[in-house]
Design goal:
The protein is mainly alpha-helical and 131 residues long. It has helices at residues 33-38, 47-55, 57-73, 78-85, 92-96, 115-121, and strands at 23-26, 42-45. Strands 1-2 form a two-stranded antiparallel sheet. 23% of the residues are buried.
Length: 131
């Protein structure tokens, strides 16, 4: 399989910092795997962290969350993200205040799979201002 933008390996885990054998993990897998390659949503992980990325839902969620924030903070818009990925792992208030500690409510971000539910919960509604 051809990998479009997988960076040169450093043999250092980008999560725990350990050196040694590493593996490339596609942060968005399955049907979004090609998007991971196209937009460099890949991360170099040690085998332990790589297994955790596939088996621990919270760990996987945090990788997706952080990748989305980094992409948005690099100048892209939420509308571009939604067109590409069709769901969000962040709240709009996180996007507008880079560097602020993450605020995750009980129901958590990323649980909204359709426009009506997102607007109903208010997480991605650009028409309302958030503090």
């Amino acid at each position: 399989m051809k990998r479009d933008k997988v960076r040169k390996k450093t043999h250092r885990c980008q999560v725990c910092g350990s050196y040694g054998v590493t593996q490339i993990h596609h942060i968005f897998g399955g049907p979004l795997r090609r998007m991971s390659e196209k937009h460099d949503f890949v991360i170099e992980l040690c085998p332990k962290c790589h297994e955790k990325a596939h088996s621990d839902a919270d760990f996987s969620f945090n990788l997706k969350h952080d990748a989305q924030l980094e992409w948005l903070w690099s100048g892209h818009t939420m509308a571009e993200w939604m067109e590409m990925m069709h769901r969000s792992w962040v709240y709009i208030r996180e996007v507008s205040k880079p560097g602020k500690a993450r605020e995750i409510p009980e129901d958590g971000p990323g649980r909204f799979d359709d426009e009506e539910e997102r607007n109903e919960k208010g997480s991605l509604d650009h028409s309302r201002k958030r503090d």
